[in-house]
Structures are given as C-alpha cells and as structure tokens.
Design a protein that fits this description.
- This protein folds into two domains: about 100 residues, RNA polymerase sigma factor, region 2, helix turn helix motif (Rna Polymerase Sigma Factor, Chain: A, Orthogonal Bundle); about 100 residues, Arc Repressor Mutant, subunit A, CATH 1.10.10.10.
- The chain is an all-alpha fold and about 210 residues long.
- About 70% of the residues lie in helices and about 0% in strands.
Length: about 210
C-alpha cells in the first residue's frame, strides 16, 4: 500500500497498475456499500451492486480524466447504479437509511446509547422508523440527493456533478425532498405532542 491519492491511483490504474485498483476498492468499498444498502435496503443486494460499481470503475479506467474529485465521480457511478437497479427491478426499497444519528456503519454510537434512557431510546427508534418510511415515499432522485448529502457529506457542487444536474437544480431538489420528509413526518410529531391524535388517520384523510 502507498500514500497515493485517489486521483493518482486512478491514473495509475489507467496506465496498467492493477494494484492501484485493489487499493481503491479497499479504500472506498465500505462507503459504496453503505450508500447502496441505504438505498436498496438489502445487505446482499447492496454488496452485489457495490461490486458492479467497482467493475464499472475498472471498465471506465481508460476513459477516466481527473476533471472532478474522485469520490464525486465514484458517487455518480454508484448513484446511477442504484437508480437503474430500482428501475430494473420495479420494486421499492424496504430499508433506505440508517438512523439520523447513526454511525457510518448504521449503528448508534455507544455513548449515545448509554446516555439515553429506555424511554428516550424508544422514542428515538420510533422517530427513525417514521423517517425511514418518509424516505421510502420520496421520488428516486430526491431520495438519492438526501442520502448523498446527509450520510456522505456531498455539497451542492459535488451533488450536481454526481447526479448530472445544475447546482440550482440540486438546491431545489433538496428543498423539495426535505419539505416532503417534513410533511410526511409532521403528523407523527403532532401525535407525539397530543397522545389522543391518530397520525395514520390524518394521513389517510389528506390522501
């Protein structure tokens, strides 16, 4: 292993250095699996799709040009793979995102678990379920934009490059996505303040 940057490794791969590809996979596999898992909702499917993503990276090695940050380019490949996979299978994901306060591997930090009372942890878990359900109802591009922004730290310019959109379009997409999530979980928030409320009935009524 070397201290070469992602771009240096990709250019080395382009020049025929197969070890560079192994190092790139080792460096970024977990992040790609996390993204595909949060989108597809199945660990086995996510790992299979992550392998396909890196296969696409390998096949594109001769066309690679360092015009953008490597991870931005990698997330573009992964995002397109996720979108195509869902469209091809004509199914909705059953589990889309780790908890909002989860670690990169989807687990809640131990210090947070220790600090939370059983009631607080139950309330937190319930809210995570509502957020997951809301994410499941978002249009595909809104869902992907939120996942890349929230869990992978992509800014507007990186999102625009990853999703092949303009920066203003990305900003608008994120505003709509966040507003839709807020709208979908608002009945549950109000129900939490008023135990007599029935959030499912309210949602049915708003159709």
């Amino acid at each position: 292993m070397t201290g070469r940057s992602d771009v240096e490794l990709m250019l080395a791969l382009k020049a025929g250095d197969e070890e560079a590809f192994t190092e790139l996979v080792d460096r970024h596999r977990d992040a790609v699996v996390n993204l595909t898992y949060r989108y597809l909702g199945n660990r086995s499917d996510a790992e299979d799709l992550a392998q396909e993503v890196f296969l696409k990276v390998y096949r594109a090695r001769h066309r690679y040009e360092p015009a953008a940050k490597f991870t931005t380019w990698l997330y573009r490949v992964a995002a397109n793979a996720c979108l195509n996979e869902v469209r091809d299978r004509r199914r909705r994901p059953t589990f889309l995102a780790a908890a909002l306060d989860a670690g990169e591997d989807g687990s809640v930090p131990a210090e947070d678990r220790a600090a939370a009372s059983p009631l607080e942890e139950a309330e937190r878990s319930e809210m995570r379920e509502h957020v997951r359900a809301a994410l499941a109802e978002l249009p595909e591009r809104q869902r992907m934009a939120l996942l890349l922004n929230k869990f992978h730290g992509l800014g507007y310019e990186e999102l625009a490059d990853s999703l092949s959109m303009t920066v203003p379009a990305v900003k608008s997409l994120l505003v709509r996505a966040r507003e839709n999530v807020r709208r979908l979980i608002e009945p549950y928030l109000r129900a939490g303040m008023d135990p007599s409320a029935d959030p499912s009935a309210e949602r049915r009524g708003t159709g």
